[in-house]
Amino acid sequence: MDGSAIAVARAALGITQKDLSKRLGITQATLSRYENNERHIEDATLAEIGELLGVNFTAFKDVHRPERGPLAAEAHMRRRKSAPVGEWRKCEARLNLTRMEVGLLARRLEISPSLVLPHLDPDDGYTPERAAQIVRSEWGMPIGPVRQIYKWIEAAGVFAFERDLSTARVDGLSQVVDGVAVILINNTFPVDRKRLTIAHELGHIVLHSGTYIPEDPEDEANRFAAEFLMPETAVAPYLNKVDLAKLQALKLEWGVSMRALFERAYHLGKVGREQRTSFYKSMNRRGWKITEPGSDRLPQESP
Fold it and tell me: What's the half-sphere exposure (Cβ side, CA atoms, 13 Å) at 74?
């Protein structure tokens, strides 16, 4: 077994080498050698480590290179720029561990998705907006709001999970390794925010799973998500002369936040820069910067 799987499981729990080695009654240097494949791990020791970390490492004996970094072609993360390195590294480890478990199942089960998950490389001329339109078209999605987004992406073979990521600074992560696509969503946020994150991560999977390395992958994923959840041809007529009352009503119809709807109106040229500034001031005055009204009235979704 690749010893770095231990490092992945340990990091996912936020446990340091020092802490784990102390619990095992071994030196930190010995644990480091295990994790770096510099020393053979006896089965009894591996079982003890697995018991402490809650992982059956025996099942991962055929896993190679279990840890993948946040490269555009491999892992993606919707997070705030203020997220400390320790927080997002822990979330990345959670994603790696989840992907290892999913990969194990995928190799042992016959899975036949009913929908095709396209990979549309921007180097081939696909804009994020065009990619979202193609996905919706190929999946035969009805015009208008997306209902039950998890069912659509899971029908295309994407494995989706909701977890408490122990931080409010990371919304979600995704990864595609050996053809297996995994999305990990922070379950502590309201449904409208989670839906946008799911669409955002789907954008990464569709656009960034090849050799293409984007200049700004987050912007591309945001543009994909906006067109996927709020197609211009369907939503544009509703975004004329928007105000807070109208946005609250539209939120219940489209299943996205008032903020996301207003940003869509702004990028479609329905409102100007001054109106945008005024909108955010109004939201902040009402205490709606983080928690908006109406989120609890949206249908809950779960993978």
Answer: 13
Percent of the chain with pLDDT over 90: 63
Q: Is the pLDDT of residue 73 over 50?
A: no
pTM: 0.88
Q: Which residue in the block uniquely carries the two structure tokens 């208008």?
A: 144
Pairing of strands 159-163, 170-177: unpaired
Considering only 107-111, 127-131, 276-280, which range has the smallest mean pLDDT? 107-111
Question: 1-67, what's its fold?
Answer: 434 Repressor (Amino-terminal Domain) (1.10.260)
Predicted confidence band at 81 (pLDDT cuts at 50, 70, 90)?
low
Confidence of residue 4 (pLDDT cuts 50, 70, 90): confident
Residue 161: phi and psi, rounded to 5, are -140, 145
Task: Report the SS3 class of residue 175.
Answer: strand
Please tell me the distance from the alpha carbon of residue 137 to that of residue 63, in angstroms, as a whole number. Answer: 36
- Would you list the DSSP string of 32-98? HHHHTTSSPPPHHHHHHHHHHHT--GGGGTT--S------TTTEEEEE-TT--HHHHHHHHHHHHHH
11 within 8 A of 85, measured Cβ to Cβ: no
Residue spans of the domains in the chain: they are: 1-67, 107-297
Distance between CA atoms of residues 52 and 26, nearest Å: 14
Q: Which of 89, 23, 92 is nearest to 54 (CA)?
A: 23
- DSSP 8-state assignment for residue 165: -
**Residue 172 class from Cβ within 10 Å (0-12 exposed, 13-18 middle, 19+ buried)?**
buried
